[in-house]
Amino acid sequence: MAKKAWSGRFRKSMAKKAEEFSASIDIDKRLYKQDILQSIAYARALQKAKILSQSEAQKIIKGLTAILKGIESKKIKFKKEHEDIHMNIEMLLISKVGDVGKKLHTGRSRNDQVSTDFRMYLKLKIIETVSFITQFQSVLIDKAEENINQLMPGYTHLQRAQPISFGHYLMAYVEMFERDKDRLMHIHKNTDVMPLGSGALSGTMLSIDRKFLAKQLGFSRISQNSLDAVSDRDFVIDYVYAASVIMMHLSRLSEELVLFSSYEFDFIELPEDYCTGSSLMPQKKNPDIAELVRGKVGRVYGQLINLLTIMKSLPLAYNRDMQEDKEAAFDAIDTLKNCLSLYIEMLRKIKVNSERMDKAVRKGFLTATDLAYYLVNKGVAFREAHRIVGEIVAYCEDSNMELEYVSLKQLKKFSDKFTYDVQRVLTAEESVKNKSGIGGTAPERIKEAIKSARANLVNAKA
């Protein structure tokens, strides 16, 4: 059994089961690059503080660079007995450069080391997530532009409510995911704080230039309290919260994709290569990818609760419970990435059933509100107009007739305010066209929204 770096005060070796239980290398090995880059910067800081000579620092940096290449070429394998990624790399360094490698950890604790690694890693993953969302938005915008003039029923309570453009519907999700990107960039700002130099909990008595380290590692700010720095995992919780909201948005879209692709709606057709069949029923084409994305939301939510529960009663500063943070965060990161990448491809291939949408928008009295506003414009109080139109709808139901087919003569039975121009407001096309206020479903507004959204995407890429 390998001797531990901390074993000096112990008389007995760690029990094998305890060693295996506490090892985290299988999880945190993905932080290898951040740990090596951090260690290279720290070696330079130790040289600057005159703890390492120039030749010692160069030897360590050369050794770490070789280890990085070895890991990336898969020539180096990690050992569980070295517990975590930090000790694995330290042991690899000592075996490569000798005793000088033992100097690298001077003034540094795994407490500030892991927090720094994690922040470096998460900063990259936040930008990656934003990139995936931007690609997803681009697909939505393209589909919206193709369907500006395609009408569909808009719903409240899953009941047909008013006519809208399918393009307007798709742009609603562009807005949702824009909020998600804003949220992520705020989290990126809070993650961009360097804890290195905080030591185990109280700082360091060595003259480590933390500003130098921050610049070397690409951090814009430095933590201001060593106790908080090593015990803070708010940035992890924030990311997994943001991931949970994004997954919730994907789940809402998934629900509608499942509904709209069913025979009952038949508004869209999902691509066959993103569907499955039934082992029993030959005719089935199941929207499994949408259902799986909808289902995986619970997984990400669970990791958020996991993290909150881990942190809820921990005294300052570091506690070993916090080792569990990475598995929760990594799972959320991977799940979200997989779901977004699948949807980017799947939504490109969705087909719109125009005929079915056109038929659906003609049924359900969707222009009833427009009729009420027609009366309002004729001087009728809204509540009175609401009552009158409600009675007209009841009449149409009894007569098995849609609103746009009601004659002027029939309408005048309910109010003498109706005149020859009333028929115009009863069509779905006119209803959509008239919603021309900012944020409305009128075609010119959708075009403006698309133009603005595309400009945002360009700015995001820049």
Could you characterize the architecture of this molecule?
The mean pLDDT is 95. The strands form three sheets. Strands 1-2 form a two-stranded antiparallel sheet. The longest helix has 37 residues. The protein folds into three domains: 91 residues, Fumarase/aspartase (N-terminal domain) (Fumarase C, Chain B, domain 1); 249 residues, Fumarase C, Chain A, domain 2 (Up-down Bundle), CATH 1.20.200.10; 101 residues, Ribonucleotide Reductase Protein R1, domain 1 (Orthogonal Bundle). The protein is 61% helix and 5% strand. It is elongated. By secondary structure, the chain is mainly alpha-helical.
Instruction: Quote the CATH topology of the largest domain.
Output: Fumarase C, Chain A, domain 2
What's the CATH class label of the largest domain?
Mainly Alpha
Listing every helix as H and every strand as E from the N terminus to the C terminus, the arrangement reads HHHHHHEEHEHEHHEHHEHHHHHHH
- Please give the radius of gyration in angstroms: 31 Å
Low-confidence segments, given as residue ranges, are: none
Structural class: mainly alpha
Whole-Å distance between the termini?
52 Å
The percentage helix is 55-70%
What is the count of structural domains? 3
Task: Name the strands of the widest sheet in spatial order.
Answer: 1-2
Oligomer: single chain
Mean pLDDT over the full residue set: 95
Strand count: 6
Relevant CATH superfamily of the largest domain: Fumarase/aspartase (Central domain)
What is the number of helical segments per DSSP (H or I, 4+ residues)? 19
User: Describe the biggest sheet?
Assistant: 2 strands, antiparallel
Strand content: under 5%
CATH architecture of the largest domain: Up-down Bundle
Which geometry do the CA atoms define? Answer: elongated
